[in-house]
Write a structure and sequence with these properties.
With about 270 residues, the chain is of the alpha/beta class. The protein folds into 2 domains: about 160 residues, 3-Layer(aba) Sandwich (Rossmann fold), CATH 3.40.50; about 70 residues, no CATH class. It has 9 helices and 10 strands. The protein has a 6-stranded mixed β-sheet, with helices on both faces. A 4-stranded antiparallel β-sheet has the order 2-1-4-5, covered by helices on one side. Helix 7 links the parallel strand 7 and strand 8. Helix 5 crosses helix 6 and helix 6 runs parallel beside helix 7. The structure holds adenosine-5'-diphosphate and magnesium ion (MG). Adenosine-5'-diphosphate binds next to helix 2. The site of magnesium ion (MG) has 3 residues, from helix 2.
Amino acid sequence: MTTVTGTDATPSIAQLRQALPLVSVRGLRVAYDGLPVLDGVDLDLFPGETVALLGASGSGKSTLMRSLTGFAPVSGGSVRVAGHDVTNLRRGELRSLRAQVGQVFQQFNLIPRLSVLTNVLTGALHGAGPINVFGGFSGAHRRQAMELLDRVGIAHKATAPARSLSGGQQQRVAIARALMQRPRVILADEPVASLDPKLAHSVLELLQEISREDGIPVLVSLHVLPLALAHSDRIVGLRHGEMVVSGRTADLDAAHLAALYSDGEGDDEHGGA
Ligand SMILES: Nc1ncnc2c1ncn2[C@@H]1O[C@H](COP(=O)(O)OP(=O)(O)O)[C@@H](O)[C@H]1O
Ligand SMILES: [Mg+2]
């Protein structure tokens, strides 16, 4: 453990930021209508790492993601995200929390009839209060949005309506939109479940590259093991709301992860509760 003393520690603060998790979850419990959905989940996300969240359908992946932005009924434990105590938010703090968390969804959630560029610009609306979507963006915002489109490889589509793009391209737009927020953390809930395998690889490569280059932790839920093994630094696995796998991707293989997908009736090697 490193102890920081004194007040003149500017370099140490920079180092500390590198070492401190941007997301820290301890003993998280979530219940819907009295039924536990997450039970004692611990999770840290550090700058620059991509963490794959694995688990069968219904294991609690989306609920865990929603817990990080204050959208789940937390019944126990602690959730800290980018300096916010999510289970004890002060008045008005929810908005700034959500502005700091970039989100990417399975269905892209673009506005289909608006241009690609305008869709990216909507990312700048987080935390900005109401703005006229059609006229309210500054030249600086437009330049930033174009740079982001260039970064995700679709600047040439800037003026096209979002609906005219392929799924892989739409997900790149959604990633650029998330970056437009200047997020501290990115949550991607099944971002490649609607894409064919080749596009899935390229979108996950992009997320991991962003994570490394910008130091933004990415939590990405996936249900295809080879994709998780190829595009993450760590893997956490949920089964029936409990975290049963947590390790460096390099130390895990398909055999370690198979338990996530067995039904657990009578062949439960992991003990459990
Ligand atoms: N809003 C909700 N109300 C009641 N139950 C819910 C709600 N959201 C999720 N659940 C339940 O929580 C469990 C986990 O769901 P979810 O987090 O969506 O899993 P995953 O994303 O891994 O498929 C499921 O049993 C689901 O039915
Ligand atoms: Mg889900």
